[in-house]
Amino acid sequence: MANPISDIKRMEIPAEEVEKNNLEELIKSVSENKESCIKGIDLLSAMNESGMLDAASALIKHRKEATKNVVQELNKPQYSATLENLVELFLLLGEIDVNKVSNVTDKINHGLKEAMEVPPSNQEKMNYIGMIKALKDPEINKSITMILSFLKGMGKEL
Amino acid sequence: MQEHIVVTINGEEYLAEPGQNLLDLINTTNEFVPQICYNESLGPIKTCDTCMVKVDGEIVRACGTTIHDVMEVDTVIETAKSAQKEALDRILEKHELYCTVCDYNNGSCEIHNTVAEFGLEEQSRPFEPKPYEIDNSSPFYRYDPDQCILCGRCVEVCQDVQVNETLLIDWKREQPRVVWDNDVPIDQSSCVSCGQCVTVCPCNALMEKNMVGEAGFMTDQEPGLLRSMIDLTKKTEPGYGPLFAVSDTEASMREERIEKTKTVCTYCGVGCTFDVWTKDRKILKVEPQQDSPANGISSCIKGKFGWDFVNSEERLTRPLIRKDDHFVEVEWEEALSYVSKRFNEIKKDKGADSLGFIASSKATNEESYLMQKFARQVIGTNNVDNCSRYCQSPATKGLFRTVGHGGDSGSIDDIAEAEMVITIGSNTAESHPVLASRIKRSHKLFGQKLYVFDLRKHEMAQRADRFFQPKSGTDLVWLSAVTKYIIDQGWENKDFIGKWVNGFEEYKESLSKFTLEYAEKMTNIPREDLIDIAKQIVNVDKLAICWAMGVTQHQLGSDTSTAISNLLLITGNYMRNGTGAFPLRGHNNVQGCSDFGSMPNFFPGYEKVSDDNARTRYEKAWNTEIPNEPGMDNHEMMVAIHEGKLNALYIKGEDTGIVDANINYVTDALEKLDFFVVQDLFLTHTAQYADVVLPAAPSLEKDGTFTNTERRIQRLYKALDPMGESKPDWVILKDLANKMGYDWDYRHPSEIMKEAASLAPLFAGVDYKLLENYNSLQWPVNEDGTDTPLLFTEGFPFEDNKAKLYPLNFELKHDTDEEFDLHVNNGRVLEHFHEGNMTYKSSGIVKELPSSFIEISPELAKAREIKEGAKVKLVSKAGETTGKVHITDRVSGNELYLPLNASGKSAVNFLTDNSVDKDSNTPAYKEIAVRMEVLEKKGKSPLPDNNYRRGNRQPQIGVQPERKWERKDYIFPGKVNQNG
Fold first, then answer.
1. Selected residue of B323, B326, B656, B903 to mutate for chain A interface (largest A Cβ count, 10 A)
2. Domains plus CATH for chain B?
């Protein structure tokens, strides 16, 4: 004889057992992923030393407010131009011929290097005549020609 | 030989079939043409204008062009391209692209993908917001007019695929939009929440509420902030290139945490398949696929939105053992040891046949196979049955008698293809919604004749060409009278009968009783109507008959099913596509549960236990002896418990204490058991009587196969882990068998199927490899893996390959009388499944339909002076029930309708008695005479205001793009560009 019943006495699993099971699961996982765990700990420790960990954790905890603040701020009219510039600038980068630029920067770098090599005592004040004379120096002449060509090319697009 | 037409596309020649749609042809080539409103399942809608191409010098819509003659097509010429661009620009004027913070950004947004593939970089006209609010009134989905591009796919699917006829586009407004009924909130409309509009929406305008704020990484924000983020997204991503780079990255990140798993619906027998999207345990959405064999892109409220039960807090998560007046949760080890010990004791003391097993039509084929194997091998009894005893056995019986296979003759496609469909005792639109839609579509668009026989004027009856209301339980009479009339007129299909049918003369003799006069008297269908029915039947070439519980749940259920098959044989309506017998199966796996042997008289594949050849095969494979006498069916088990002959019962996934007839008698029996095990998701009404309750896992938490009403075997894949300590039924059965000393070592259901296929010839070639993803097999399956979508093409499975006509008699078995003057009919409602153990766990469904009700005709309400919401008590010879009244002309006169979705005091089975179908022991649920006592004369209606039954359908064909083109502000995109 069995009457219908609906009361259920739930199984109470002692907290220690839950803890034990969880730990076992964790140990298994740690052991299977030993290397990544060690690297992870390294990363955490580095972040902690630099104070980044605190900052990151605070930011994540308050991410909703943070997103809101940033998004609302960025949506203000005064940033409109900045944002557009950012994007334009990004697009602009795509159009610059990096090979040529690097050619030019090589030259500039070399010029800087030479300039730095001249001891301060040798940096005499140059007069007008001296400047004209200097144009005869083939290296200086090459540089000036290049700068003039650049100005000319840019003028064509203006 | 079919003629082909040469079509030149961008200089290449292709062969087209006459009448083929041009866009369909283009899609078979490598050419890309944008096409946002076009959907293969829906066909051309012609609203988005993006598929513009140049045909013989003129710019036209590819989707609106039919190939009749040789033609030259250019899809890339400047004029075509700029027309396409113009159309895309118009779409982007209506739809704001903020993909990264959009929940629909899952790689399948058709606007996103089209714009990207077309290579559109800049928007030439800005997005224009529309003056409408989001409609959030439905519990299941929401409509955002601001994102809607008015492609009309949702309208097309609602009008002509689901054929619920709720959605329209109001083209007359200054700003057109999709409207529900005559422009009411979704919740107040005739919307049945089938969700198909959401499935076909190409963007985020219609979206499942479970997706909103869940699918994306950055979409769960307050509305104001979301708006700011959208604005910001647009500022920082001015061209579409960068925008898509970011949003595509985000979309692929989503794949990391959203799983998409193919599954088979766990509700009715149609066997819809779909992908279910899950994020951890959350169910985000259900997405039917074009490749879904039974349903295509279709679904109903339960399959699309009724999955909350899976995560219900009421789920059992540990085994329970009865201790005095309560259950105690125990470990599996303890529960299984206890069950094993008690089963062994009872078997030893009282014999194997003192134990009984009831399998579940909700569980998989593999689990049915293991249940009967457990009964036959581990216990040694044939006392194993399933719930088809409550519904489907009579149909199976009728078909076995006449045509030799107990299943649908063909596929759902065959029902759609028939010239005429007759439904008998089937509330198809509510019980098999997706299948009903196929009939509704063929009837609406393709001239299919629909004749409906039912007590109630339900939706199918309202749509039918002819609707008849024969007196309850007399279908056999009109069927036989119409058959007799056809033979008397010499209209029978003589060639077919001569070649394929035995027993004609004897059968013809047996019909002598069924004259038109007799039929008119017994059924109340006038003689002229019977003649009209006969004429209509012989006038069509392809007839399909669908029937359900209104036929089977009677004392003559098997005979009436036989009469249907006789009529089909006489008129030659077997062996061809578009014809045949379709007993619409009620549960997802009621077909498969019987197919795989959980029946007292059959092994898997319907081989009799008395067949020495078959029995020896199983005895050898299982190394055991099996009794050669059939065991007890469900009904006999209940009687045997009362008689003290059955002492232990194991019920898997069946709420017998609510769904069996005469539940007072059944629950009395359950109380008398010495030992009772129930395996279920919940502590059901039945489980409350158990000694041990084992927590099972639902379909989403396991692998396996289901077999739908088309005999179609389909795989379901595990989408979630079983909740808590619950386990799939096959694992529980395996563990229990092993506990009882056997060595069942199945590691996966595929191994169980392999064993079943090796033993049952009907499934010889069934193999999981052939069932991968959306592939399916319709039994019989030959050893080489070929299946049988259409039965009987080579003849009937009897000795001489011929079908048999089966003579029948008729006697009216039940009626109302002076004391019990009302007849109670009962059945399903659309929203809930059966008694509602699963669907009541969905708050959305409960909001649509919170409880059961009693339908009463306006005439009866007037006579008894009661109003909507009245409280009444119904009293039958077996018991009584109380409930609230809903007055409707779906029922007439002294007919009442009591939906099944009630437990507690309203359950219909307090009223049903022990009378059964004489041939199959199926309870005669539909034969209840009651008297009604009025408790309260009026009250609050049990049907909420937001129920679809109160809506106001707006039938039309398709979305009517002509009305868009007639608008003054509409300019054909091709024209804009040609002129300027």
1. B326
2. 5-257 (3.10.20.740), 320-391+589-772 (3.40.50.740), 393-583 (3.40.228.10), 822-946 (2.40.40.20)
